[in-house]
Amino acid sequence: xxxxxxxAIVDDLKAFKESKExxxxxxxxxxxxxxxxxxxxxxxxxxxxxxxxYLDYDVYDLELTAVKNNTELRKLFIETTGKSxxxxxxxxxxxxxxxxxxxxxxxxxxxxxxxxxxxxGEPEKDEATKVTLSGLLNFIDGLWSSCGGERIIIFxxxxxxxxxxxxxxxxxxxxxxxxxxxRFGGFKVLAKNYLDVVVxxxxxxxxxQLLEETDMSPADVAENLMPMSNKKKRDPTECFLGLIEAxxxxxxxxxxxxxKEEEEVEAKIAKEKEExxxxxxxxxxxxxxxxxxDMKQVDK
Length: 300
Hints:
Residues 30-183 form the AAA+ ATPase domain. This protein is of the alpha/beta class.
């Protein structure tokens, strides 16, 4: 992560930990929500571990799809202790995705199902066995969320745009942290941690340029800096050469993918244009036929 970005998160965590009196003064539960979003391999899970280590908090990993209903969700929350981080990873993959936008369609489908005759032995749909969006919202900032204190709730997702806005609004997910692709600042941290390179290297210039032009996750960058043999210390120059090759290949693949997508779009536009012209020609021919028919009718 970029050093200044990391420093801002550390400051936010420190302020939360030292704000018990402030939360009491304003009448809010002593809790804070974080949304970590970004592509796979950008360090979302690692960030959670780092936050827990920094604050010395326990971590509760909540698998939302394994929770039967809202009552069980509430029970699980009450059983958590203070000084804890409650994590729901990949929330976009949960059953709650699109719940609100599909509510009208689901209601219409239910009415249609009610009109159909029930077959003997057909089981009734038990909505009480599902965690609803409303139940999750109450879990985050409802009445039961005020029980206890000094808790952090973290959601992670690869696709922020898929989440219901009510779920991630400020006050529920107070801070949105984008975990993005590796850039030069983050690379220098990795080079120091993996290869003990603390000074400028002759290859840094080329790596800097490639990282600005290419989207590569920190996990992929780190993999290219990992030792590949039993040597106690791998040669930094060898690692950087491997990283440069990987970045160049990633750049070429991205360019090829973009060109392919542009070709598909152009082909689609050309096809739609051709179909439109054919349709116009058919309408024109139809008009001519109708005009000829009218003329024959007049002659008769």
